[in-house]
Amino acid sequence: MTAAVFDHEGPWTEEEYLALGETQQRVELFDGSLHVTPAPTPRHQNISGELRAVLRQPAREARLRVLEAVNVRLKPGRITIPDLVITGEIDFDEVNIEANDVRLVCEIISPSNAATDKVLKMHYYATAGIEWYLLVEQENGTLHLYRRQGRHYVEQSVAKVGETLELTEPVRATIRPEELLP
Questions:
Q1: Alpha helix (H) ranges present in the chain?
Q2: Dist. CA 111–CA 41, nearest whole Å
Q3: pTM for the full model?
Q4: Residue 36, CA distances (Å) to 42, 45, 174 in order
Q5: What residues have CB less than 8 Å from 24, skipping those under 6 apart?
Q6: Residues 155, 109: Cα–Cα separation, whole Å
Q7: Confidence (pLDDT) at 4
Q8: Which residues of 129-161 are buried (b: 16+ CB within 10 A; e: fewer)?
Q9: 105-160: per-residue pLDDT in tens?
Q10: 80 - beta bridge partners?
Q11: What integer best gives the mean pLDDT of the chain?
Q12: 81, pLDDT greater than 70
C-alpha cells in the first residue's frame, strides 16, 4: 500500500481508495484525501469488543446488527471506518455500508485522534443523517450519547464509571462504563 499512496497524485477517488484493498492501518477517505491511523491499541479493542457484546442481544431482538470497523459510505468520496455501528438490513458482501442503513455509530476516542472523533467525524455523521452517535472516552470509560437535530448532534446523556447509560433507541440496552474497561 505504501507505494500506491506515495506515488498517487491529486485527490483520491472512491474507486482508487477501494482499490487499496484491506490494510493493516485504518484508511478512511475524506473528500479526496486519505486519513490513515495505526491499528487500535489493545485497550481500544477491549472496549470495542465489550461494547459489541453488550449490544449484540438487544440488536438481535430489534432485528438489527452490531458490527465493528466496517466501511460506512457517508456520501460519494467520503468513507469512514467507525469503531462500531448498529445497522438495519444490509448486504454482507458489499464493501460499504450506506449511511442510511446505520442507526447508531460509535467512536472510541484515542488520545492521539480526539479531534477527528469529536469534531470532524461528528459533523460528517450528522450531515449524513445518522441519528445516534456514541462517543467512548478510552482513558476513563465515560460514555457520551448524542442524537441528531438537523445537521448537528445534541448530547442526550453522559455516563461515567459507576453510572449507567440507558439506550432506548435504536436498541434497548444498559451500558455500564466500568464493564467496558480492561
A1: 2-6, 14-19, 42-61, 114-115, 121-127
A2: 11
A3: 0.91
A4: 18, 17, 33
A5: 39
A6: 16
A7: 52
A8: ebbbbbbbbbeebbbbbbebeeeebeebeebee
A9: 999 998 777 878 888 999 999 999 999 999 999 989 999 999 999 999 999 999 99
A10: 72
A11: 92
A12: yes
Please say whether the beta carbons of 55 and 136 come within 8 A. Answer: no
Percent of the chain at pLDDT exceeding 70:
97
Which three three-digit cell numbers place residue 42?
489493545
All three cell numbers of 84: 462500531
How far apart are the C-alpha atoms of 135 and 108, rounded to whole Å?
A: 6
Distance CA 132, CA 154 (A): 10
Which grid coordinates belong to 92? 454482507
The set of cell numbers assigned to 55 is 449490544
47 in Cβ contact with 138 (< 8 Å): yes
| Dihedrals phi, psi of 141, to nearest 5 degrees | 80, 0
Q: Which of 69, 92, 81, 169 lies closest to 125, judged by CA?
A: 81
